[in-house]
Specification:
Elements: E1 6-10, H1 14-26, E2 30-34, H2 37-44, E3 51-55, H3 63-73, E4 78-82, H4 87-95, E5 100-103, H5 108-122, E6 130-133, E7 136-139, E8 144-147, E9 150-152, H6 156-166, H7 175-181, H8 189-202, E10 212-215, E11 219-222
Parallel strand pairs: 1-2, 1-3, 3-4, 4-5
Antiparallel strand pairs: 6-7, 7-8, 8-9, 10-11
């Protein structure tokens, strides 16, 4: 049985489909392409995929509409490609069930990093995995943070946010994606608030973060030891 991750790329741009097929294949994926949502739904009846890369702006049924339909029948990861620049538009995609988004034009390496990040996040977790953050150790199975003096209490919101971050070490995650995946109310501003609170609990100097860093224009990233 072939365990190579199988990616479905749905985009009406023939040139981009070809480029993504070539690039992703060269980086260890099996790739199937589709030119529109209707064709994609037909393909999905006969093949299983590990992730869908889906363009938002397509003739006929849009990527957002297809996302809603897919979420009704599957929890397969969806990464949206969008030319929309406003945060509200990106949030619309995440609220409809997408796992992440990438704005066009984009660097192929960033797409690759996001795909790998999503696949790691949805992969079966090991029986035990500890993340070292200086004097703190986070058990991602128990979702428990230990400090030098014992357990560190996390609120539910802090725990959900930290869990998303530790499953993507070294990979920047947008504020919109963090807000969606952590199920935080209050919009993306709530992410900033929870990040500030987490830094107070894990950073030697919260004003100069070593582990939970801000990546300008891209979001936040966790750098474990």
């Amino acid at each position: 049985m072939d365990d190579t991750p199988h990616i479905l790329v749905v985009d009406d741009d023939t040139r981009l489909r070809g480029l993504l097929r070539k690039f992703l294949t060269e980086n260890g994926f099996r790739v199937t392409t589709s030119s529109d949502a209707s064709q994609a739904r037909e393909i999905l009846q006969f093949f299983e995929f590990d992730l869908v890369v889906l363009d938002v702006m397509m003739p006929g049924e849009s990527g957002l509409q297809l996302t809603v339909r897919l979420r009704e029948i599957s929890d397969m990861p969806i990464l949206l490609l969008t030319a929309m620049g406003e945060s509200e538009d990106r949030i619309n995609g995440l609220e409809r069930g997408a796992d992440d988004y990438l704005s066009k034009p984009f660097e192929p390496r960033e797409l690759l990093a996001r795909i790998r990040s999503i696949l790691r996040r949805v992969a079966p977790r090991p029986e035990k995995e500890e993340i070292i953050l200086g004097e703190h150790v986070y058990d991602s199975i128990r979702q428990q943070l230990m400090g030098p003096n014992g357990p560190v209490r996390l609120t539910n919101a802090e725990a959900r946010l930290l869990q998303v971050l530790v499953t993507n070490p070294g990979n920047p995650i947008s504020r919109e994606a963090l807000q969606q995946q952590s199920r935080l109310g209050g919009g993306i501003r709530a992410v900033d608030v929870q990040v500030t609170r987490l830094r107070r609990k894990i950073e030697p100097d919260p004003k100069v973060p070593r582990y939970l860093q801000t990546i300008r224009g891209r979001g936040y990233v966790l750098w474990p030891d």
